[in-house]
Amino acid sequence: MRTTTLGLVFILMSGVAFAQQTVMIDDRTGTEVMEAIRQGKTTVIIYVGGLHENTYQAENTVYVGPRVDAVSINKHTLVALYQARRIAEELGNALAYYPLPYTPAGSHLKPATAGGTVALSDSTFAAVLRDMASSAVVSGFTHVVLIGEDGGGQAVIKKVAEELDGEWSSKGIRVFFFPVYADANKLTAEYFGKVEGFPAECLDRGIGGCISATTDASETLFLKKENVRTDKISPAIAKFVSPELGKTLNEQKVKIAVDYIRGKIPNSQPR
Prior knowledge:
By secondary structure, the protein is an alpha/beta fold. Helices cover 48% and strands 7% of the residues. The chain has 9 helices and 4 strands, in the order ααβαβαβαβαααα. The chain has a 4-stranded parallel beta sheet, with helices on both faces. Strand 3 (143-148), helix 5 and strand 4 (174-177) form a beta-alpha-beta unit. The two termini are 40 Å apart.
């Protein structure tokens, strides 16, 4: 294919514009990351996803579907990637790493049903988080935000953030954990409690069970529809699953995180 000189200049300029606009650290060169930090993007988002099979559809219940797995095992990582990007974009003074895809998901490691699950020990998980945060600080970030999308490991993330903040705050480095996952679950449970026709058994179990099945499927359907096996979704909840709901749930978590960060980190204001 023939490229004119003018066309080549346009391509190069487009590449520069992309590099300047993306908030994802992994998509920038090292020089571009350092320049962004010098220009004030001193907050870094370290989001944790997860890679495990789904065990929320128990046998002998009203909401069990033809198969337990209707959603890909990387659902939490897909959600974490979307939210990390959106949070950094909303803040204006932040960049984000691609999510850590592994968590302490040991409860999913059952013979014959693990289905590709990767589970870290609490000690390994904590060590990885510490090293990621330390690496970010070496690069020049002064505010580190740790958030977990998966239920597993929340206590570990919180503990690591508190320990590092205690070690580094006297040096002007702050590390935060915000309970985005827990706060969003409360709002989601309240929402489904008001949805007409949503199975009562689901509501009795709280955020677990088919509420998680509905939210996971919807969030993933919004982000990557081919990762949802719609024919496997339980008939009891299928009509409540939608990409529109998925977008709402994702953006709800983004707002929760942004509100927390703006309350704690200077200059985290709307662009």
